[in-house]
Amino acid sequence: METSSERPMGTSQQQDKAIYLDYNATTPVDPQVFQAMEPYFKEHFGNPASAGHRWGWVAESAVTKARAQVASAIGAKSSEITFTGGATESNNWVLFGLISKIREENPYEPIHFITSCVEHSSIMKAMGAVQKMGVEVDFLPVNRYGQVEIETLRKALKPHTKLMSFIWVNNEIGTINPIPEIARLAKEAKIYLHTDATQAVGKIPVDVTEMGIDLMSFSAHKIYGPKGTGALYMRSKDPKVQINPLIYGGGQERGLRSGTLNVPAIAGFGVAAEICQKNLPLENQRMTELRNFLWSHLQAAIPGIRLNGHPTERAPNNLNITLPGHKTEMLIPRLQKMGVSTGSACGTGAMVISHVLTGIGLTSEEAQCSLRLSLGRWTTQEELTQAVEILKGAW
Ligand SMILES: Cc1ncc(COP(=O)(O)O)c(C=O)c1O
């Protein structure tokens, strides 16, 4: 399956030559994905739980196919994938589902979780909520690139540590955490490792089995699939991960997440995952070249510009930049022809100082002078040349 050559509406330059450089916030649905979803809104509208007739069978077989496509893209078995409403839901479920399981067996057992100070808000805030439930949480500091250091992690382990949860590719600064190394430590210590791989899947090689990951959250809308759909991977053996169900009801998703499945979205997620898997090496190379092109041209055009995050251990599509002394708040009105982000897109839209940027040591003043540019499947070199001109003029 090839990447669609047809450019989705809205990323094209028809909109008054607007340039979308916010692919980390969300991606347009690939036209092939849209095509794959369409029949499940129309003639194949059945409920996959309807086991007694053809409408149900067709829907059920679409879900089975998508589950295999999604599993294959991350090196998992179909039975290890549970469809959810997105990565936020998957992230929350891991924490609350594990606590519920542990407390069901022993209400007085102390529980300790380890995470970092540069996680996505769906982990940060959920960790804050579990603290209120009496769970001890350590938010580890990271190095100046945003990576968790193995020694820091080793020192944080306690006899009652039950989970470590680290973002794989940081959504703001693009830094890649050493997840395979962390996984080895987790295995040695017999602690579950969960990773939020929302920005990793489709961008860097991800193989949960080979890399020894126990639980992994990811989302369809970051890989050219529909919004509101995601998955949680849970290892089925060595160790078999056990967490309590997220939602109780009709018993869908092996009783773990009840509720009628969103068949069109799941079918689209499957195709999106398959396209990503097939195109990963080429896409990764193309993104890296474009990103390097953008960075070298920005450096030439804007003296004093700085890169945030790791110089090489970073997602191929992400640049996070700071121009000290120039607040991006003032810049945004002058960047109307560009879609860029001053922080996480999942924020409130208000000017919130990024905890990720301050977490890697920027002052709040510097954090306010920072911008995230994220490239994607339909980004062209011409667009990047124009983007540099626009930024140069605005800054
Ligand atoms: C790293 C990361 N985790 C979680 C999420 C939330 O994903 P979703 O929108 O599927 O809930 C995002 C989205 O911005 C993300 O970038």
Main traits of this protein?
alpha/beta, 12 helices, seven-stranded mixed beta sheet, 395 residues, three-stranded antiparallel beta sheet, 13% strand, Aspartate Aminotransferase, domain 1
Q: How many helical elements?
A: 12
Mean pLDDT: 94
The whole-angstrom Rg is 21 Å
What ligands does this structure carry?
pyridoxal-5'-phosphate
Q: Strand pairing plus helix content: what structural class? A: alpha/beta
CATH topology of the largest domain: Aspartate Aminotransferase, domain 2
Give the biggest sheet.
7 strands, mixed
Strand order of the largest sheet: 2-8-7-6-5-3-4
CATH class (first level) name of the largest domain:
Alpha Beta
Query: What is the helical fraction, as a range of percent?
Result: 25-40%
How far the N terminus sits from the C terminus, by CA atoms, comes to 41 Å
The CATH architecture of the largest domain comes to 3-Layer(aba) Sandwich
CATH superfamily of the largest domain: Type I PLP-dependent aspartate aminotransferase-like (Major domain)
Rough shape? globular
Percent in strands: 5-15%
Tell me how many strands there are. Answer: 12
- Helix and strand run: EHHEHEHEHEHEHEEHEEHEHHEH
Question: Any overview of this molecule?
Answer:
- The chain is of the alpha/beta class and 395 residues long.
- The chain has 2 domains: 19-30 and 280-394, Alpha-Beta Complex (Aspartate Aminotransferase, domain 1), CATH 3.90.1150; 32-273, 3-Layer(aba) Sandwich (Aspartate Aminotransferase, domain 2).
- Helix content is 37%, strand content 13%.
- The protein contains 12 helices and 12 strands.
- It has a 7-stranded mixed β-sheet with strand order 2-8-7-6-5-3-4, with helices on both faces.
- β3, α4 and β4 (136-140) form a beta-alpha-beta unit.
- The longest helix is centred in the last third of the chain and has 39 residues, at 263-301.
- The two termini are 41 Å apart.
- Residues 86-88, 120, 122, 167, 171, 196, 198-199, 219, 230, 345-346 line the site of pyridoxal-5'-phosphate.
- The site of pyridoxal-5'-phosphate has 14 residues, from α3.
